[in-house]
From TrEMBL:
GO MF term set: 4 iron, 4 sulfur cluster binding; metal ion binding
Annotated InterPro entries: 4Fe4S_Fe-S-bd, 4Fe4S_Fe_S_CS, RnfB_subfamily
Boundaries of every 4Fe-4S ferredoxin-type domain copy: 2-31, 80-109
UniProt keyword Iron-sulfur, yes or no: yes
Pfam (any one): Fer4_11
Protein name (Swiss-Prot/TrEMBL): 4Fe-4S binding protein
Organism: Candidatus Egerieicola pullicola
Length: 142
């Protein structure tokens, strides 16, 4: 299965992936209308370190602890992708605590949010990959 991988040596820490992610999941067709004056809430987060930057997003684990810990059944595995049903999420944040990568975050409403590889969007590939100017984020099978 294809997954998103980060080449830390190429990451500039520009945070463009975060903006591309927020726009792709906004439901808007115009980036300016979607993001201007809004605090973005992306499903990918760039962590900046001492000379090393990298993006953190859901790794779609083969045996995901988040799915096992979800008390409402909002998280499930569909074709290898961990899917979130926002209508079932009760906002208990058990999945946030159980994710070893810190890839599940509180959303704007009650539900949590996580990367779903832009499968619900019309991007064709994850928006973070498409918008990375330095090809630090790739979508490939390894």
């Amino acid at each position: 299965m294809k997954r998103v991988y980060v080449n830390e040596e190429w990451c500039l820490g520009c945070h463009l992936c975060e903006y591309q992610c927020a726009f792709a999941n906004s439901g808007e067709t115009d980036m300016v209308k979607a993001l201007k004056g809004v605090k973005i809430n992306p499903r990918i987060q760039v962590e900046e370190g001492d000379g090393v930057n990298f993006a953190v997003q859901c790794r779609h684990c083969e045996e995901p602890l988040c799915v096992k810990g979800c008390i409402s059944g909002a998280l499930s595995i569909q074709d290898g992708v961990i899917h979130l049903d926002e209508n079932k999420c009760v906002g208990c944040y058990t999945c946030v605590l159980m994710c070893p990568y810190g890839a599940i975050m509180p959303g704007n409403g009650t539900a949590v949010q996580k990367c779903e590889l832009c499968l619900n969007n019309s991007c064709g590939e994850p928006a973070c990959v498409k918008g990375c100017p330095n090809a630090a984020i790739v979508y490939e099978e390894r």
